[in-house]
Design goal:
Blueprint lengths: L1 H20 L12 E8 L3 E11 L2 E9 L5 E12 L4 E13 L7 E13 L4 E12 L6 E12 L4 E11 L2 E11 L1
Length: about 180
Amino acid sequence: MRKSLILSGLLLVSGSTFAASNGSANMSNFNYDYIDARIGLSPMTFGAAVSKSIHPNAHAIFSLDSEFDSDYDLSAGLGFHAPVSNWTDITGEMLFKLVDDRGKFDDDTGMEVNLGVRQWLGPQFELGGQVGYYKINNHDDTDEVYGLISGRFHATELFSIGLEGKLNYIYGDQVMVTARFNY
């Protein structure tokens, strides 16, 4: 647990330092003020997330997913984002988790840390990836490394649709369709 906290702190500091040392990189290339609605396939889940910038390079995030079968995956915490180039942001989050999946976890708490990248492929297309680690209830068999890859089409400045693939997450491997509303 301490190693995760130390790693998260180092990543936050190094990301901010790297962004500050790059003279042209003083602002993120993406909007981090949004509301996300999503549907996961296999298993079928429904979810939502809210992100709000609290600093030019930091945001608060709240996320909830469920199969609507007396289960949930709730996450809340803070994240950072910093430009690497004119087209790319590096991101990371440290989240508190509360999970009840009607199986392995039963109203158990834990934490999650992740590190990712977001890249513009053109004026309306975005590609992203993330690798993370979560540990629930301090038992040895409840820590996992996961991955996420996403693509997003920005129809307007305020609305985008996306497709995400989650590997080895709370509900297993999943494909998710998302709608994002920027504010």
